[in-house]
Amino acid sequence: ERLGRAGWRGQVGQEFRIPISGGGYLRLFPVCLIRRAINHINKREGQPAVIYLHPWEIDHEQPRIRAGIKSRFRHYTNLDKTEEKVKHLLSSFNFAPIGQVLEIA
Question: How buried is residue 105: exposed, middle or buried, by Cβ count under 10 Å (0-12/13-18/19+)?
Answer without folding.
Answer: exposed
